[in-house]
């Protein structure tokens, strides 16, 4: 019974601790939420940034309290028992035994003893735990003061979203009537909705002169002080289109892809001319800095090409790739393979940079193959751009370069230079497979390639008159079998046929037995000295390559192999002979045999007459200029002259569509002149000058006609000419 009462005491202590802890956490959450509620109540959603902060504070306070609730509820009775052991030494660190069944008599006695001590101490009445609540109450107090300040104290209004200035429309033709009886525009809102490809949001214009994206939709919304009889929008002095009336006023919406001029017609009164310019969507720009338009990869160079380029667009690039075409073979046996390759793009959608390496071997290219590639990009609209075609070629060692002059090449020497290329291929293959084969196999294959290099060197040595291997290395030494050469001279002859002399007593006959006169290595050659020097250099490079192959260093031998191949190709090119081509001369035609003999008496010549009516350009503009000239002379005009100025204004408006900024002022002044002519007022002098300049510039330049040459002579010249005439 005592044990159960002790456990009940532990539960009471835990419950009181959890409640006190949650109360402090709730005070902290209320402090934060109160400030957020005050901000949201004071400014509501007028300032989006403050509304977001307020909502974040309230949501954060709720989440904070929920997490703390979950953490405090995990407090167990064992934690309470350990806390009581630290607070009351009389419990002898045995309070946890109340939560377990005793296993023996000693544990049961200790459990009963602890239960009795716990009932005597009454910890549930003394509050055995201590909580720091000062910080929570201070935070709550500060939050309440801040909340009161936000709600009740006067404060300057926070800056809201920037208000666009009011759009004003002027009516120069409107008569001066009482404001209470005239229909006027109280408010006009112009909303521009850019097309989807721009990625821009709709915005309000702050000026009736508009500059919008190509394909943008413009919505005019007008509110008048009283219902209007007619409210229309005129584009380029063409047929007016009426606004649609609704509860909020009048609205008109349309998309524009071309620049234009527009006016608003309110109850028959036209407003001033306003411009509507369109910003065209530009195609993507591609700028390639590497490689050059033509790149040739020489022997021994890595078969890789570095690609560096920049792609840019005014509104963003939707897709970009590279089209690569590999050409293999020559002549009629050439084959093409086209691949679409992805580009490593880095940057934002409006500006990408490309920096990647093209591995030609992965594209399946080899010696003599060619690569043609170009970049292409699409924007979000209809823009497409393709770069120039770039050309990459791997030098082919088996094809002799052709001459571009009018000659035909003839090669008198057979094709001897393919084996060195095979040695290079074997060496590169060995280097690639080095990690996958054993060391013994690697050394064996390297030595075998060195043997092949030696045999090839000996084979080319025959072209220089070397009939046998002359020692080790590229020069000198005693040839094989030379040790027995003297004995052969004494016993069996020297192995060569020596000429017989008619006079055996001549000096040549006496010295002939003691001379060895057969061809020497350095002289027995079919090549010229310059070509011979190149071939000797190639043999020296072969020897260097052989040395490193024999010592199991194929990587070091590869540059010498390439250099030897390049020299051999130069030797082959040097041995080509060129013969000038002869042109083909066609035999003379036999005119009597090939001449036509048909009769032409029934063939009538074509006789057609077309009358072309010459149409006068800008007739109303010319008439308006004549009217301006007459007005300058007499200063008189009639109200009916306004119609002439209206027609001239239409011609000027048609021309002003392409360049609205240049003729806008002239159109506005012309509108003012028309209004003054109709009302009979004095005409604006500056407006007359502006309109005259604009109409004069509108006319095409007059064609030049022949004029008699007028020469003004002085009196002395006239007297001289008179004397000559006598």
TrEMBL record:
> Could you list the residue ranges that cross the membrane?
22-43, 49-67, 135-155
Q: Which UniProt keywords apply?
A: Membrane, Transmembrane, Transmembrane helix
Q: What is this protein called?
A: DUF4175 family protein
Q: Which organism is it from?
A: Pontibacter rugosus
């Amino acid at each position: 019974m005592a044990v159960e009462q002790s456990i009940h005491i532990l539960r009471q202590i835990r419950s009181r601790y959890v409640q006190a802890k949650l109360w402090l956490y709730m005070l902290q959450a209320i402090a934060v939420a109160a400030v957020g509620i005050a901000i949201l109540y004071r400014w509501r959603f007028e300032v989006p940034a403050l509304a977001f902060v307020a909502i974040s504070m309230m949501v954060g306070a709720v989440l904070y309290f929920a997490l703390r609730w979950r953490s405090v509820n995990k407090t167990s009775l064992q934690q309470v028992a350990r806390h009581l052991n630290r607070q009351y030494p009389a419990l002898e660190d045995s309070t946890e035994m109340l939560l377990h069944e005793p296993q023996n008599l000693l544990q049961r006695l200790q459990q009963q003893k602890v239960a009795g001590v716990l009932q005597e101490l009454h910890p549930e009445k003394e509050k055995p735990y201590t909580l720091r609540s000062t910080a929570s109450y201070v935070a709550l107090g500060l939050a309440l003061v801040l909340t009161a300040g936000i709600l009740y104290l006067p404060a300057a209004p926070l800056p809201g979203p920037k208000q666009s200035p009011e759009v004003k429309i002027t009516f120069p033709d409107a008569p001066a009537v009482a404001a209470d009886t005239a229909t006027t525009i109280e408010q006009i809102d112009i909303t521009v909705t850019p097309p989807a490809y721009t990625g821009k949001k709709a915005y309000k214009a702050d000026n009736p002169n508009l500059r919008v994206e190509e394909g943008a939709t413009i919505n005019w919304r007008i509110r008048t002080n009283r219902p209007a009889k007619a409210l229309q929008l005129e584009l380029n002095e063409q047929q007016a289109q009426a606004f649609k009336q609704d509860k909020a006023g009048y609205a008109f919406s349309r998309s524009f892809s071309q620049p234009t001029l527009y006016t608003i017609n309110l109850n028959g009164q036209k407003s001033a001319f306003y411009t509507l310019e369109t910003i065209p969507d530009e195609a993507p720009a591609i700028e390639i800095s590497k490689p050059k338009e033509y790149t040739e990869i020489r022997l021994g160079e890595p078969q890789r090409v570095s690609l560096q380029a920049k792609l840019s667009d005014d509104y963003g690039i939707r897709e970009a790739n590279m089209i690569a075409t590999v050409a293999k073979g020559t002549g009629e046996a050439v084959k093409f393979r086209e691949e679409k390759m992805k580009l490593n793009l880095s940057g934002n959608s409006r500006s990408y940079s490309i920096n990647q390496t093209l591995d030609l071997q992965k594209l399946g290219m080899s010696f003599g193959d060619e690569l043609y590639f170009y970049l292409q990009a699409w924007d979000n609209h209809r823009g497409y751009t393709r770069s120039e075609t770039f050309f990459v070629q791997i030098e082919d060692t088996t094809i002799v370069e052709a001459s571009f002059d009018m000659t035909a090449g003839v090669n008198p020497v057979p094709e001897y230079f393919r084996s060195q290329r095979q040695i290079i291929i074997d060496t590169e293959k060995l280097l690639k497979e080095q990690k996958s084969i054993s060391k013994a196999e690697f050394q064996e294959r390297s030595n075998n390639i060195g043997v092949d290099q030696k045999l090839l060197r000996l084979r080319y040595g025959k072209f220089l008159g070397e009939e046998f291997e002359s020692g080790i290395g590229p020069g000198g030494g005693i040839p094989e079998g030379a040790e027995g050469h003297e004995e052969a001279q004494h016993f069996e002859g020297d192995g060569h046929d020596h000429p017989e002399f008619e006079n055996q007593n001549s000096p040549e006959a006496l010295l002939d037995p003691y001379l060895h006169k057969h061809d020497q290595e350095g002289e027995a050659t079919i090549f010229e000295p310059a070509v011979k020097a190149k071939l000797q250099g190639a043999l020296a490079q072969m020897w260097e390559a052989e040395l490193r192959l024999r010592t199991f260093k194929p990587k070091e031998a590869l540059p010498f192999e390439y250099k030897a191949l390049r020299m051999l190709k130069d030797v082959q090119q040097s041995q080509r002979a060129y013969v000038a081509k002869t042109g083909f001369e066609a035999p003379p035609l036999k005119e009597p045999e090939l001449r036509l003999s048909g009769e032409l008496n029934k063939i009538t010549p074509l006789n057609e007459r077309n009358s072309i009516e010459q149409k006068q350009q800008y007739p109303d503009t010319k008439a308006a200029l004549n009217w301006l000239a007459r007005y300058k002379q007499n200063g008189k005009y009639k109200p009916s002259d306004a119609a002439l100025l209206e027609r001239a204004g239409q011609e000027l408006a048609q021309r002003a569509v392409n360049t609205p900024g240049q003729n806008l002022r002239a159109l506005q002044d012309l509108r003012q002149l028309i209004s003054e002519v109709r009302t009979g007022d004095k005409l604006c002098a500056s407006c007359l000058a502006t309109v005259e300049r604009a109409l004069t510039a509108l006319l095409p330049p007059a064609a030049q006609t022949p004029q008699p040459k007028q020469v003004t002579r002085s009196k002395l010249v006239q007297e001289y000419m008179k004397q000559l005439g006598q």
